[in-house]
Amino acid sequence: xxxxxxxxxxxxxxxxxxxxxxxxxxxxxxxxxxxxxxxxxxxxxxxxxxxxxxxxxxxxxxxxxxxxxxxxxxxxxxxxxxxxxxxxxxxxxxxxxxxxxxxxxxxxxxxxxxxxxxxxxxxxxxxxxxxxxxxxxxxxxxxxxxxxxxxxxxxxxxxxxxxxxxxxxxxxxxxxxxxxxxxxxxxxxxxxxxxxxxxxxxxxxxxxxxxxxxxxxxxxxxxxxxxxxxxxxxxxxxxxxxxxxxxxxxxxxxxxxxxxxxxxxxxxxxxxxxxxxxxxxxxxxxxxxxxxx
Length: 293
Known about the structure:
Layout: E1 2-7, E2 19-21, E3 28-30, H1 34-44, H2 49-61, E4 63-67, E5 76-77, E6 81-84, E7 87-93, H3 96-103, E8 109-113, H4 114-122, E9 129-132, E10 140-142, H5 144-154, E11 160-163, E12 166-170, H6 176-190, E13 198-206, E14 211-218, H7 225-237, E15 245-249, H8 253-262, E16 264-265, E17 291-292
Parallel strand pairs: 5-17, 7-9, 14-15
Antiparallel strand pairs: 1-11, 1-15, 2-3, 4-7, 4-8, 6-7, 9-10, 12-13, 13-14, 13-16
Helix pairs in contact: 1-2, 2-4, 2-6, 4-5, 6-7
C-alpha cells in the first residue's frame, strides 16, 4: 500500500459572505468566520500555544481581504502599508463587509488565499507585519518573524512516498487534548475536496513492528494525492503535536472497512460544485500568483 508520510517537528475559498443583522442598530454585520472564531478563542487563552497554532492554521486556509492603494495592475498589487509601533504592517480582514466598514468608503482591495498573502509578505525585504481584523478589539498583529515562520511551514518539502504493508489497525493512541486540535485541522484541510468519500484517522502497526497513525482517504483522484499529503503535513505542523508521524494512505475498499472499525471517521465539509462567476478574484488565477509593487 502506497503511503505519503508526514512528520511533525513541533515548530511552532472564497466562502459565501454570511450576513447577520445587529438587533440594536439594525446594521448588517458579517457572520463569525472560522478565522474570527479562532482569533477569539486565542484571545481568551493567549498563553495556550495550541490555540495560537489553530489560529495560524485558519489564517493560511482562509480567504483574506487586503486594502490596496490602487486597483490591481495585472498581477501586481500595492497593499496599503500602515506605520505601527513595531514597524510597518498591512491590514487584512476575514470578509468584504468588514473591510468596507473599516475603510468607511469605496476602496481598492484584493481577495487572496491566506497562504498566498503570507508567502508574498515573507518575500518583502522591508519586513512587513500583518494585522488581522483591525476593526475589532481583539485584532492580532503578526510580526515579520511569525509571517516568515508561516511561509517556511508552507514551503515544507513534499512528503516522501513509501510502499509498506500494515499488520494491524488500532484505535487512535493520542490524547484528547492533541485530538481536539489535530482533528479540526485535518477536517479543514479536507473540506470541499472533490471526490472525497470518507476520511478515517486510526492507529497502525506496519510490517516489521513500527507503530504510528494513518489518515485513510477514499475517493481522492491520483493526480491530487501528493498535494493533499502536503496539505496534511501543514495541518500536522500546526496542530501542536511535538513529535510523531502521520501516514496518508489510499486503501482498497476492503482495507478501508477494517480501518473504519477501529478508527475515527472525520467530518470535513462536502464539495459543492461552484456556480460560474463573471470574473476571477485577484490572486486566485491558477499559476499566476500576484506580486507586490
